[in-house]
């Protein structure tokens, strides 16, 4: 049995053209290979099927395991999307495309973003539009995509059936007005999909029809399936009732009376264009669509980045395992973000070690015994913690996973870059490396060591690249604005001065001593406390508002408080 649901974004869709079957009956189609892991798979299951005859794929995947298939017949990025039938009790799955050529992976698509009505007794037909990915609304980035993965979540075994999996060449989107909003004096912004007839849109203001005198349209860079059209009205808005209607949408607005204000143009403070930054943007279209002005190569893994082999290690974020960095080449990465119109913020490692290869790890279960958890894909790679939460002992030798790193190596690397960074950050949250990178730097870092590392690297970099601006100390969150990992005994040893004021005093003194600017940007990290991990409308709205917590106390009972900023 099969039940057909409304598809992506609840639009009617049809497919036609030269499609590529992935699975029909009893086996994968020609030129497809099974690259699955950690899963029990029957490609000829008959206990549930989409038609009266034939078979389906029965899948039972363990935590983080997957049904994964690789196509040898070419690349998939030029196609319009993927259609499939699925049955299961709302299985915890994410769907992604990846490239076996360069290891890149597309944004993950939660099955729940496609449908929340998938059930175990009947198949539901779903369609992923590569120009309008569910959950993000963005297009599938350009890439050498040749692999499709249905990956289980991390909680329990995930069981489901698939049938009629097809890569489709064309998707016809039903024309629809998605939104219409008044702007400025006489402009209505209309978001649509498909071939909408804009002559069918009617506007009334206080019961009288208002003529549309002009229109201009553009396709958003990151959402090529959408069209934004600005309708210019023949007369200006006035207080009262505005009604916008179309064959698929009717919206009512109550326009308030106009309010006025005066602006003193002689009193202004410039805003840095570099405030519009993101960490590792996913594509050029993402940069251009959002207007990203600075792209950051940063995070826990870059502390161990070895540019000589493009290796890295994410520390306790992922079982202290070395791997090839993703993206691998910082120089090439700065080149493409620059080509997309963004500056770059490059994080330079400032500890004494970087990853030596792509395979080593620090806490083998075969050496240290059972630990609190292990890598589900490599069961010998442990978490570095015992079940009671204490650190595994003895501390491993750094040479197990790392190779020495120094200021001079950093300078040699930076001087050899084809694409120079706009800004350089000296490491990432270096004061907590006795936790995040406990295998590399097991002892808590205090005021003096952190200052010494910041000064040594800044002096060397400013000498080698005098035009580069430097951001420090890349401090992790609230607690470390005031003290160090050692704790308040460290404050006491430094005249009971909080860390950030003390750091600024020391940098000012060092700049006088050396006769040049060493700190260009004070880099403080801030983490919004409320959970915004969901992808529903409420979470999206909260994400948009979270920067307000930097200047507004959040006290509304309907909105979770950010405890850290409410202390200010």
Automatic annotation (TrEMBL):
<dbReference type="InterPro" id="IPR024745">
    <property type="entry name" value="GH44_cat"/>
</dbReference>
<dbReference type="Pfam" id="PF12891">
    <property type="entry name" value="Glyco_hydro_44"/>
</dbReference>
<keyword id="KW-0732">Signal</keyword>
<protein>
    <recommendedName>
        <fullName>Glycoside hydrolase family 44 catalytic domain-containing protein</fullName>
    </recommendedName>
</protein>
<feature type="domain" description="Glycoside hydrolase family 44 catalytic">
    <location>
        <begin position="311"/>
        <end position="528"/>
    </location>
</feature>
<dbReference type="InterPro" id="IPR017853">
    <property type="entry name" value="GH"/>
</dbReference>
<feature type="signal peptide">
    <location>
        <begin position="1"/>
        <end position="17"/>
    </location>
</feature>
């Amino acid at each position: 049995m099969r039940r057909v649901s409304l598809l992506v974004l609840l639009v009617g869709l049809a497919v036609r053209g030269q499609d590529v079957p992935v699975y029909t009956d009893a086996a994968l189609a020609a030129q497809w290979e099974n690259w699955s892991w950690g899963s029990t798979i029957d490609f000829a299951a008959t206990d549930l099927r989409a038609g009266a005859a034939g078979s389906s794929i029965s899948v039972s995947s363990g935590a983080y395991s997957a049904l994964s298939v690789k196509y040898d017949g070419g690349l998939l990025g030029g196609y319009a999307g993927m259609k499939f039938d699925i049955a299961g009790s709302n299985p915890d799955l994410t769907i992604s495309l990846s490239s076996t050529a360069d290891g890149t992976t597309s944004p993950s698509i939660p099955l729940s973003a496609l449908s929340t009505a998938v059930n175990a007794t009947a198949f539901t037909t779903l369609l992923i539009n590569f120009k309008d990915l569910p959950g993000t609304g963005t297009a599938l980035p350009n890439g050498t995509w040749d692999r499709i993965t249905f990956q289980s979540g991390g909680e329990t075994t995930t069981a489901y059936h698939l049938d009629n999996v097809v890569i489709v060449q064309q998707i016809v989107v039903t024309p629809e007005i998605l939104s219409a909003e008044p702007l400025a004096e006489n402009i209505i912004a209309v978001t649509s999909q498909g071939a909408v007839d804009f002559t069918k849109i009617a506007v009334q203001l206080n019961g009288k029809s208002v003529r549309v005198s002009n229109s201009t349209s553009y396709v958003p860079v990151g959402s090529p399936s959408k069209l934004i059209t600005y309708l210019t009205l023949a007369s200006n808005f006035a207080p009262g009732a505005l009604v916008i209607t179309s064959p698929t949408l009717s919206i009512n607005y109550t326009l308030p009376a106009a309010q006025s204000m005066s602006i003193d143009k002689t009193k202004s403070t410039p805003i840095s264009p570099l405030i519009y930054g993101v960490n590792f943007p996913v594509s050029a279209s993402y940069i251009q669509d959002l207007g990203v002005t600075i792209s950051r190569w940063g995070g826990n893994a870059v502390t161990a980045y070895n540019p000589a082999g493009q290796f890295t290690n994410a520390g306790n974020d992922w079982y202290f395992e070395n791997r090839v960095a993703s993206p691998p080449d910082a120089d090439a990465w700065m080149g493409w973000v620059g080509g997309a119109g963004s500056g770059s913020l490059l994080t330079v490692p400032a500890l004494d070690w970087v990853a030596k290869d792509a395979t080593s790890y620090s806490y083998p279960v075969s050496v240290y015994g059972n630990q609190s958890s292990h890598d589900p894909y490599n069961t010998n790679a442990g978490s570095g913690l015992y079940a009671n939460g204490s650190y595994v002992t003895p501390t491993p030798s750094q040479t197990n996973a790392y190779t020495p790193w120094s200021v001079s190596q950093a300078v040699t690397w930076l001087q050899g870059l084809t694409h120079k960074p706009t800004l350089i950050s000296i490491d990432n949250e270096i004061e907590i490396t006795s936790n995040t990178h406990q295998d590399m730097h097991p002892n808590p870092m205090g005021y003096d060591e952190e200052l010494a590392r910041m000064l040594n690297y800044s002096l060397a970099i400013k000498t080698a690249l005098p035009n580069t601006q430097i951001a420090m100390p890349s401090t992790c969150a609230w607690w470390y604005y005031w003290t160090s990992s050692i704790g308040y005994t460290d404050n006491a040893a430094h005249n009971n001065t909080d860390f950030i004021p003390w750091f600024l005093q020391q940098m000012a003194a060092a700049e006088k001593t050396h006769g040049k600017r060493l700190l260009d940007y004070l880099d403080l990290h801030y983490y919004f406390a409320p959970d915004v991990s969901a992808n529903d409308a409420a979470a999206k709205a909260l994400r948009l508002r979270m920067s307000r917590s930097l200047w507004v106390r959040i006290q509304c009972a309907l909105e979770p408080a950010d405890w850290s900023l409410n202390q200010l």
